[in-house]
Amino acid sequence: MKIKKITCIGAGYVGGPTMSVIAQKNPNVEVTVVDLNEARIAAWNDDDLSLLPVYEPGLDAVVGEARGRNLFFSTDVDKAIDEADMIFISVNTPTKTYGKGKGQAADLKYIELCARQIAAVAKSDKIVVEKSTLPVRTAEALKSILDNTGNGVNFHILSNPEFLAEGTAVTDLHNPDRVLIGGEDAEAIEALVQVYEAWVPRERILTTNLWSSELSKLVANAFLAQRVSSINAISELCEVTGANVDEVSRAIGQDSRIGAKFLKASVGFGGSCFQKDILNLVYIARTYNLHAVADYWEQVILLNDHQKSRFAEKIIKTMYNTVNGKQIAFLGWAFKKDTNDTRESAAIYVADHLLEEEANIIVYDPKVSAEQIYKDLDYLGTRSPEENRRLVKVVTDPYEALDGAHAIAVLTEWDEFKGYDWETIKEGMKRPSFVFDGRKLLDRKQLEELGFSYYAIGE
Ligand code: UDX
Ligand code: ADP
Fold first, then answer.
1. Interval between CA 117 and ligand 2 midpoint (Å)
2. Is 162 in the pocket of ligand 1 (CB under 6 A)?
3. I need a labelling partner for 145 at 20 to 30 A (CA). Which of 16, 138, 356, 390 fits?
4. Which stretches of the chain drop beneath a pLDDT of 70?
5. How many A from CA of 217 to the centre of ligand 1?
6. Would you name the residues annotated as active-site residues?
7. Domains of the chain by start residue, with CATH
8. What is the pTM of this model?
9. Which residues neighbour 6 within 8 Å (Cβ) at sequence distance 6 or greater?
10. Tell me: the pLDDT tens digits for 139-189?
């Protein structure tokens, strides 16, 4: 079975970059990415590659190389389904906001809609690949919908979870630690292996059964998030004992059994995956009455929530227990550097906490729009949209945010912050001039010499 045409449903942070690289590395396979969102597809098709809807270093070059050759973006979902041999489902699976499992379980309505649409349209056999992160055993539901509502054609389901991290998506895709493919049908698995073999060494392509593959994705994210919560728990202990969390990270990370990565203390992890996937894991464990397992993983989230509110509390306490009417400049809003994604970003929750105390916040982020920032705050529903706009200002010049500020809070580790003219910034700020570094990004010595009062997580 040789794949000639691939369709991907969902042109988001996962579908867009992944399909771009698959097309780049398989010039003989035609790859079409479809989405219901017309504005998003228009942006993927924009001649100006700096306007792609997903910001990822290096992505413009990949899209520039493949688009129009064998990579296409379209809103015609039915046509793309009809023509494809292999269909990736890469739609969003947010945490449910209603009904059973609200706040924990994954909302599978978008997945189900896709399955029904594929079944209705398909007139020839298809391999359907789950790319979105899904609860274990979703493939079973998918298969049942496809087989029961289809036109009598054969569907093979594969699970092929994506491990790319945002901000490094292109390098992660070009050089993955592993590619995981779960499935039951050897021929279907082999067809997908061949797509990846165009650039990934065979020994890095792991094949498993469907359930192991689905579960491994959740577990990988849970383990990564757990490391961040573990070091963040230690950061609080460092602050009261005089230890330095970076030194502790280095000391333990050199132990090859522990490893050095994902031990950077921070204001808390964000992103679309960690919290959602752990909640999902917790929900599954509870469904099977495994309460000790569920409680264990839930602590990772509770500690992360604690870290975000602890940071906000630290700001309030240090500023003489009141931030009312004070100007607090936020450097960064994205959940990490090199992305314009703000989903579950710690900045949202820290801002919300400070706004409850009537602080005035001025935000600068090199890649996040004002529209997105207000959307994130409005989504919380804590206060009216008018109130959010009254208390929060968004600027495109960082010096405008910093000028006249009582305090600076670093929420995202954008490299450019390090190179700012801190001397000029100090002159323009109120005194005492506080810096709260939630990313341990800036140089304590330099800032203290300039007269800043500098606080960093875990020191
Ligand atoms: C994650 C997984 O890494 C990826 O494999 C999966 O496919 C999707 O979820 P992503 O959410 O894009 O990727 O970013 P990641 O680099 O994992 O960071 C997640 C959050 O943890 C960010 O807010 C980041 O700032 C924070 N983090 C990460 C820390 O605070 N400290 C660390 O040491 C590492
Ligand atoms: P992820 O981070 O998982 O890629 P995103 O929210 O960035 O999530 O992208 C998911 C995309 O899937 C969105 O652009 C959404 O419009 C699209 N989508 C959801 N359901 C469907 C559907 N039934 N058909 C086509 N596109 C869909």
1. 14
2. yes
3. 16
4. none
5. 14
6. 273
7. 5-208 (3.40.50.720), 209-459 (3.40.50.720)
8. 0.94
9. 19, 22, 29, 30, 31, 32, 84, 85, 86, 87, 88, 195
10. 888 999 999 998 999 999 999 999 999 999 999 999 999 999 999 999 999
